[in-house]
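ERR on first pass: missing label on line 2. Operator R.T. fixed the label and resubmitted. Corrected input:
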Amino acid sequence: MTDVKIQSMNPQAIKVACSNCNLRELCMPLGLNAEEIDRLDLMVANRRKIKRGEALFRNGDKFSSLYAIRTGFFKTCVASEDGRDQVTGFQMAGEIIGLDGIVSDHHSCDAVALEDAEVCVMPFDRIEDLSREINGLQRHVHKIMSREIVREHGVMLLLGSMRAEERLAAFLLNLVQRLHARGFSQSELILRMTREEIGSYLGLKLETVSRTFSKFVEDGMVEVKQRHVRILDTEALNRLVNHQGGECH
Amino acid sequence: MTDVKIQSMNPQAIKVACSNCNLRELCMPLGLNAEEIDRLDLMVANRRKIKRGEALFRNGDKFSSLYAIRTGFFKTCVASEDGRDQVTGFQMAGEIIGLDGIVSDHHSCDAVALEDAEVCVMPFDRIEDLSREINGLQRHVHKIMSREIVREHGVMLLLGSMRAEERLAAFLLNLVQRLHARGFSQSELILRMTREEIGSYLGLKLETVSRTFSKFVEDGMVEVKQRHVRILDTEALNRLVNHQGGECH
DNA sequence: CGACACCTTGAAGAGGTTCAAGAAATGTGG
DNA sequence: CCACATTTCTTGAACCTCTTCAAGGTGTCG
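pass 2 clean. output:
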């Protein structure tokens, strides 16, 4: 196993600067003045590269930092004592991971890269220091955590009340919408995760995910070639999600 | 150090004081000095009583405050456009609700009292002001939000990977454990919610909840008389949750 | 005391899982 | 670059869990 950690520790090679980052609108607060924006750069200690399949952190690891994803794609998953596994989310560029670790000073889930990735490491005590001085940052941190809580409410709704087709439709629409917000296509996407990981996230078995994809293809709503998905009828998927199977009016 | 505050009988004049509150260990940070503890009292604007069945806030309401539950019992639930409903949690004394509202300045779920309740109203901008000055409070706020995120991970695991019996067992154990932490019995509890609300929370229909209760009774694990539940065999419930139906390792 | 909400139980049915087999893609080492 | 091993994906058939529909019982509150 080759050790790739060294290269990411080389400080002068990398100009860490939120103020330049093209993801700033996604992960940083708006409405700061120039001086505050400059100070934000202090928040990022360094960057770290994670190869596909590797973990950014694991359940039990000491918590020290939040991570802003620069490139790549992650899944987070929790496990119960008896080995049950649940994917709790998929994260992409501009999103923040690590919030789970704050409460107990240790992470309670795994964050695994589904493709080669790079993150900004933001030591949490620096975040706390800075956010005491920059109100906009304080508010931003609170919003990020609240957003995650609300997102999870949505997942609970999905897991608690939707059927397989509705879950997969909601999943695809959510993914493509987030990708679109990052400049990708509205209708085409490449799944970074396996059917099993999708299934875990949606509370379904991988066979059910596969079958449901096949059904969507039959119905002409999407094209699927392995992990390449093209959405042909966004409206139909929306109807699936919002009109629980078709009550009239 | 006389920390006894005068309380008039006039409800308008009740001096709100976290420093006296017997729930302080549950909802307030530890390790503050005397001056900081005094300042915490500023956080609570007033108290508010909510009758059983009434909402503390509803989806769409303007967000302004977090609420610390003093007495009573709440459920929070989200609804999708098409009227699907999902209970996202049950909250009891010492717990904080309202975090969902921070991100968008509006609440995205309903908080409904399941029995007559009283809450401390903590305007969020005061919380932010104070937590810029009291590091312990800042950290505490972060922990509360992180705890909620981690709690929801647990619910996702439950909804995504457990079967009906496992879900109900986990639910009962969680409830009784939280009640025990508040000085109630380890083995006896009164359910404040209907079978339907339990079902919504657990992603099951009310009939399934009822049948599963009956099965637990048959198996001698619990006694159930309507909403009064006595746990006879905690270990058996624990095994149900942790050994997914009995793999023999 | 009567109306209403809540709970229990049965029987039939649907949706998803499990088990199994094979196909397609991906990665690896020679 | 190819052959082989491995992982991932698809599809079928049988099965099982939970849901749905229905009816009756129990508790509660004005």
